[in-house]
UniProtKB/TrEMBL annotation:
One of its GO terms (molecular function) is metallopeptidase activity. Belongs to the peptidase M1 family. One of its GO terms (biological process) is proteolysis. Residues 437-528 form the Peptidase M1 alanyl aminopeptidase Ig-like fold domain. Its EC number is 3.4.11.2. Residues 219-432 form the Peptidase M1 membrane alanine aminopeptidase domain. This is Aminopeptidase N. PANTHER family: PUROMYCIN-SENSITIVE AMINOPEPTIDASE. Residues 533-849 form the Peptidase M1 alanyl aminopeptidase C-terminal domain. Pfam families: DUF3458, DUF3458_C, Peptidase_M1, Peptidase_M1_N.
Amino acid sequence: MKDAAPQTVYLADYTPFGYGVEDVHLTVRLDPGKTRVQSRIRFAPNPEAQDRDFFLHGEELTLLWAKIDGAAVTPQLSDQGLRCTVPDGPFIWEAEVEIAPESNTALEGLYMSNGMYCTQCEAEGFRKITFYPDRPDVMAVFTVRIEGPHPVLLSNGNPVDSGEGWAEWHDPWPKPAYLFALVAGDLVNHPDRFTTMSGKEVELNIWVRPGDEGKCAFGMQALKASMRWDEEVYGREYDLDIFNVVAVDDFNMGAMENKGLNIFNSAAVLASPETSTDANFERIEAIIAHEYFHNWTGNRITCRDWFQLCLKEGLTVYRDSEFTSDMRSAPVKRIGDVIDLRARQFPEDQGPLSHPVRPESFQEINNFYTATVYEKGAEVIGMLKRLVGDEVYAKALTLYFDRHDGQACTIEDWLKVFEDVTGRDLTQFKRWYSQSGTPHLQVAERFENGTFTLTFKQRTPPTPGQDEKLPQVLPIAVGLLSPSGDEVVPTTLLEMTEAEQSFDFGGLSERPVASVLRGFSAPVVLERAASRQERLFLLAHDTDPFNRWEANRALAQESLIASITGAEAGPDTAWLSALLEVVKNAAQDPAYRALLLGLPSQSELAQALHQRGVTPDPDSIHAAAEAHRQTRAELWQADLPMLARETEVTAPFRPDAEQAGKRALGSSLLAMQSRLDGGAAAQAQFDGADNMTAQLSALTSLITIGAADSALRAFEKQWRHDRLVMDKWFGVQIAYAPPAMAVEMAGLLTEHPAFDMKNPNRFRAVFGALAGNHAGFHRADGAGYDQLADWLIKLDAKNPQTAARMCSAFQTWRRYDADRQARMRAALTRIADTPGLSRDSTEMVTRMLG
Ligand code: ARG
Ligand code: ZN
């Protein structure tokens, strides 16, 4: 953790390990302060490797003894691991180490959470459990014996045998150490079964703390749906007798795909109508699917090295997005994903933390579990599928599974499969993996003699370490509409490969209106000088649901920017009237209508201004957004009650897309209503709510208008026993606070007895919310920056991973005025200068300052 000079690891330096591992036997004797881990590992020289340096990773381990072929040895120890002289041929390595899970606050390796033992090994946590070649290309069969006085003792694979105080597990599938897991505790299960497509019976369990058993049914249903879906869509069957899922309160991320023993942040699996919002249900369904899908894309086929992380993550995010599209509404899912991409990935790719989907160097791999690797990585898979077509994609995936099952692979292996199936050369396409930054795509159009010509220019601004950019392959989906709104050219995929390229559409009797980049067919910034009239036309007539939404989004952005810069006094009321007509169309999916009511976030507006060469002022952005919402509510006043009635759900609560869509629309309308009635309707909804979606949306409406004091007290009283609901209570008060109060509110809440900085969910609830309150965080006096820096410094000493991740709140610092820049730079410098700062945070702040 506290290296003097952090080392940089390069993709170009990859060499295989000198030894292969035949099998591993572990015996883990649990004890909070003195856990003993005994290992017995059969090594053999790796014929593919030259280097015979026998180095085993190991960090924060006390070595008690080591033997080779039964004879005691004395390895050379460092704080990174050990080195030892070994025989020429195969040999058996044995060792025993001691570790202290109770004092592990980094939540990496073996640690304790509310009295239960659990592990997190990806990416490099196994080295905190025992000495081992902790790299994904070393795959082995594990047998694990756990000893401890706990009713439930779990590890990977199938159960072999158990007795009073012990259990033994065997995982027949060779796996890298990052997929190792162990859980022990006083847990209860929600059991079920699944019959696979070939008729094998699988036992399913979701394990939780006593008291949470009522919150497992939805996750279980999602698990079974995922198992069926992967059989039907990808032909992938589950491969063990048992599949266990465990919920853990203290967890650095969402969840982890350990073989046969997925470990979840309890926020990503526990659900009930009373305690979870529709958004929570949808996220849980997606994460359950994501981790389950990793069994093939990640576990059966894993990564050769951590530079290849997107091989499993991009593909698995892509697969879970397909699953959600099938389970729910495909257009709604796509729009949600694009909103998220622009909110999280674009700022990353357009700032100092920009890196390729496949990075070429790192100091701390945990810093590269990013929106770029995951979400842009998934966009790259989506483009590949669009370019080759659905059938060829399916063929390529079948070949990928056949060819590489049981292997640790690279992006080259992945692309070679597509080259072999299609006969195409994907050299240029591969730039999506190596070139960082978001391409900007300019569009010009011309109509002459019945031919409509679209001319595109692509340009990617320089990013850290990459000054020159080459043209990328852009799949651009285009449709053409006649002026009366008929589709004259249905969706056509243009394949752009040059820096500048034109495409003709002939035989047209009149000038069409183009709908460009349908479905957001490539992750680019589209620069199109479309007229307001044209956007209104597309909002009314486009047959592509994404682009109808996009036209509206552009109108919203233009209107807001015009008021921020003072070009217009207030919102574009003609557009708002047109939008109201669309929103009133009861034939449209309510979820889609709710999306049309969303506005670009204040941070997104700041980025848009910055791209136009205007220095964003967070206070004016906030004021314009507030004024816009107020005007819209007043303008639509007469229609709100009727629209609200239409969103009423009378059937019992179901967390499905249909009911969730109605509630989403209802929540937007309630927020508008609150601006008109002083919160009467929101208070009534809050008082009568029988589900968390209704309760929380009422609460946020009340906070926004400053009328939530009694509701906040009632909420706390009702939910003080429920950690996950209390995370919401902490978060909303800060996220929706008036900007001038956000910092004070966050400070006050850190004094609350239920604030616990060691719990990542609680820390994120407070400081994630602060960073998300744009004008509050960017207060002119710098108090937001100072407060976040103070807490990140405190957290870094305990939990480097979560601290480093949250440092990215500062990544957009160069967008703002000189004074704010200086204050953010000072905050970052203060973090950087902290004695003993972790390698994780050091790398992040150095890149941001660099
Ligand atoms: N593989 C896990 C997932 O995608 C995430 C692991 C994140 N690990 C980390 N060290 N950040 O679900
Ligand atoms: Zn994943």
